[in-house]
Amino acid sequence: MIAPTLLMTNNHVLADADQAAQARFQFNYELDIDGRLDDQNIRFAAFKPGGIFYTNKTLDFTIVELDKTPPDFIPLSLRPTPICQVDDRVNIIQHPAGEAKQISMQNNRVQYADAKVVQYTTTTLPGSSGSPVMDDDFQVVAIHHSGGNLLEPGTDRRYNRNAGTTMKAVLDDLRASLPDVVPQLKVV
Known about the structure:
Blueprint: E1 6-9, H1 17-22, E2 25-27, E3 43-45, E4 53-56, E5 61-65, E6 77-78, E7 91-94, E8 102-104, E9 110-113, E10 117-120, E11 132-134, E12 140-151, E13 158-166, H2 167-177, E14 186-187
Parallel strand pairs: 6-14
Antiparallel strand pairs: 1-5, 2-3, 4-5, 7-8, 7-11, 9-10, 10-13, 11-12, 12-13
């Protein structure tokens, strides 16, 4: 969540408003302290009819307005600058392969970064798309979109890495395309 009722994911996850209208958004899908699914706290939301839907295929992100969200949810802080540097640590809170929440905080160094793309070694699995990529202060620096044998931009070299779109690129696009939304966001 990037605002009280705004969710961000990838364009390749939700490419249009019809898909968003059919989707069910799940919150608190996590294990309790004993390693059991805490299904008493799972909450659901839906796309708000007539609500905000914005997507950018090139940057691979989508913003969706939800009808309701759990009242105790605090939107994530977005950090567009400074842009990540090589060897910075990044962490990912994810639901790999549709499993309960997992936090990846090891083997997590940035390997490449520019104003639009950050590549990192943080562990993910398929299904982690749309997860926030966070610095060690847990401010979102990117949105995760892919992994595998990726081409490093500006080179002909491929590496086994993950990649995301930087918050700088996302916020620059939102300021140009959806400026009324930006004041709702917690930008640090």
